[in-house]
Design brief:
Blueprint lengths: L19 H25 L7 E4 L2 E5 L3 H14 L12 E7 L2 E7 L8 E8 L10 H12 L2 H5 L1 E9 L5 E4 L10 H11 L3 H20 L3 E2 L4 E7 L7 E5 L5 E2 L10 H13 L4
Antiparallel strand pairs: 1-2, 2-4, 3-4, 5-6, 5-9, 6-7, 8-11, 9-10
Helix pairs in contact: 6-7
Length: 277
Amino acid sequence: MIDFANFERTQRKEDDKSGYDVGLETLIKILPGLQSESASQEEAVGGHDDSIRFEGRMVWKRDQGGRRGEAEMNFLRAAMEEPDLLGLVPALAGYRVKRGEQWLGMTNALSGLSQPAILDIKMGTQTWTPDAPAEKAASQAKKAAESSTGSLGVRVVGGKLLAANGEFTRVGYKNKQDVRNEQELQALLSSFLCSEQLRSSALAKVKAVQAWWAKQTEYAFYASSLLFAYDTKSNDECRIVMIDFANFERISTKADDQSGYDVGLDTLVRVISNLKS
């Protein structure tokens, strides 16, 4: 409790006209719902990951520290100055230290979704930065060549969607359901984007990211993802935001970008465009 500049002493409860009790009753009604929504969102993105905390309209991500943490913070700050990224990148909303740990606060792309379907799709044909040690680069290049990263510029990391039987099913390589080629990607997106509204809204947002990426010459994104999400209660609009910027690099010219992010965007536009209504 704070701010007592206008408190008044009363003789009887009836003398209290503040309506403070109404506010307390409202919070008691609302807070359990927020807790339920946050639990649903944490579960939706693959379990209660200690590095992510959902709090209503905000999501807190543990600062990774060092170069990675600095990179993520720097891009989120830079994105706030890019009008074309409004709604495509979570807005930086705060920074806090809690029990000795630093956390980045961002707008929560899942806020308001009661039963979300979600996909985390890692973008690009190269997930390692140009200055990565040779051993790491070789290891990552081998993994890319053996997965859809190398061939399609996308890889489904994880997620869940509502199956025909009314149960949620998990997908992505982290759930041992890897998508290995374009045919399997098309089948997954056909099931995930299960209405014309979802398909048209998803295509429009991917094209918006593609249009921004094509004209910008400052950033290269390595091991970054696109997050797809919608409410399975309505199936009417697919939200898409860019996430994970710990490995972004500043570039001088487009030729410096070795990520293959554009290959992934081209794949998504092509596959979503070919989905049947």
